[in-house]
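Researcher: Quick test of sequence recovery. Tokens follow.
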């Protein structure tokens, strides 16, 4: 995903939560928003709302933007700037395990993008990395 296109999907908004918005932004990046619809469809099926489940399964993900705290904006931009720098491991099953960001490559990517993160911003980027890694590996939580 290109950082410019992803940035167009995000807007500066204000909502409460420490790293919740960063994690949600990372999950949105990793799943394209599809995971939330899949989970909702599964929940609807469990409660016997088959018609709703069918509609949710057939629903396309609509690009409605996504709010990000102003103070997190630089962190999100940094994450999107290096979002192609993942370490992945091929598994015997043919699947891929996403280990995490390749930090030497991230350091170069941030430097080339002219981004200098404070220690607090770095922790925010790592929070996004962890949430994206979980989403990419199919871990719910």
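Model:
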């Amino acid at each position: 995903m290109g950082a410019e296109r992803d940035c167009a999907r995000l807007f500066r908004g204000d909502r409460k939560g420490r790293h919740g918005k960063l994690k949600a932004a990372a999950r949105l990046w990793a799943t394209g928003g599809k995971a939330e619809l899949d989970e909702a469809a599964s929940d609807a099926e469990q409660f016997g709302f088959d018609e709703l489940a069918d509609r949710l399964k057939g629903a396309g993900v609509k690009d409605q933007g996504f709010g990000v705290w102003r103070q997190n904006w630089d962190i999100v931009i940094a994450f999107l700037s290096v979002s192609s720098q993942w370490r992945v491991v091929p598994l015997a099953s043919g699947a891929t395990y996403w280990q995490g960001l390749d930090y030497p490559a991230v350091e170069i990517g941030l430097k080339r993008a002219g981004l200098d993160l404070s220690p607090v911003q770095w922790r925010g980027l790592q929070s996004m990395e962890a949430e994206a890694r979980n989403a990419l590996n199919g871990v719910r939580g």
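Residues 3-30+69-136 form one domain.
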